[in-house]
Structures are given as structure tokens and as C-alpha cells.
Amino acid sequence: MSRRYFIGFLTKGDVDRCVRGGYTVFPQRETYTRVRRGDWVVYYSARDVFHYKAQWVRRFTAVGVVTGDMPYPVKDAHDNKEWRSRARFYPDCVRVDARDVVGRLSFIPDANLWQHSLVPKRYGVREVVYEDFLVLAHAMRLPKSAYLRQGDIADPSAGLPNSTRLYPGNPQP
């Protein structure tokens, strides 16, 4: 089975909890029919906490790989049911302002209206192509050794169209 790539949507506080606890969280079990062991998840956080007056974050806040086989249900602090799976996160990754990368993501048709295109309609997770994952992984400074597949090129921006170059005009970090 091939590796897949997802963007999950949680508040920054919830993402921090996931990174500390070593697990992914999604609100619906159906999500885990999609996300499996070996798949990568990049979390996007629109706000700091789940409250309409909470501070805006609008960043990609964590990246990790799913290591658990089966999701398990858990009641969160607010007595809501959520589904977790073990994961290994890379806490040294940089949190990236979404506005700095959305123009290079293939599923965002208009960078000016990116928020409408980013959030999925269902399941709280969006599957993305490998090239979009590379854009995010590179921007977040994920070590290349963590995510490059056998036979991949060492520079994840090489071979991508100019519109999706990772750091156009800038040296690679």
C-alpha cells in the first residue's frame, strides 16, 4: 500500500497536545478509513483555541507520520469523542504562515481566496498529492531524510513547475 499525505485541521492548542502525546486526532472515525500507518499528516491551525474570539494563528503547525495500526476512541476534555492514532511528530519543524505557501499548493485555485479552498467540506482532513506535501515539508524544515521516498530527488523543489517552486529566487535552506 502506498504512502498518502493529509492536512488535518485542529487548533494550535490541540496540535500542541498531539505533539506532546505522540498521537494524531480527528473528530470522525471515517477519517481513519483514509489515514493509515505510514501516512503523513501536516496540521493546519486557524486559531489558537476553539472559540470564536480566539486569536488567529493561520499556520501549518506540525508535521508527523502515523505509526499506529488502529485508531482508538477517546473522550476529550470537553467530553467529545475523538479518534486517535499513534504518531511520530517532528517538534523542531518551523510553524509556517499559510499565506507564505498557499500560492504553491496545487489545490488552491486562487491564492487570494485560499481559506475557502484549504478547509475540506467533510471529515476534518484533506488528502493532498506528494508534491503539495513536499512544499509544506520543505517550508516547515522537515529533515529530508524523514520523508524522501526511495528514488526521490534530494531537492524537493527540483522538477516542480515554476509556479510551485518552494523558494523562488531564494537559496535552499
Give a summary of the structure in a few sentences:
By secondary structure, the chain is of the alpha+beta class. The protein has helices at residues 12-21, 114-118, 130-139, 144-147; strands at residues 5-9, 23-26, 40-47, 56-66, 72-75, 81-89, 96-97, 125-128.
The global form is: globular
Fourth-level CATH superfamily: ph1033 like domains
Order of helices and strands: EHEEEEEEHEHH
Q: How many β-strand runs? A: 8
Count of all domains: 1
Distance between the termini: 32 Å
- As a percent range, the share of strand residues is 25-35%
What kind of sheet is the major sheet? Answer: 8 strands, mixed
- Look at the helices and sheets and give the structural class: alpha+beta
Instruction: Indicate the CATH architecture.
Output: Roll
Pfam families: EVE
Domain EVE: 29-137
Organism: Plasmodiophora brassicae (Clubroot disease agent)
Protein name: EVE domain-containing protein
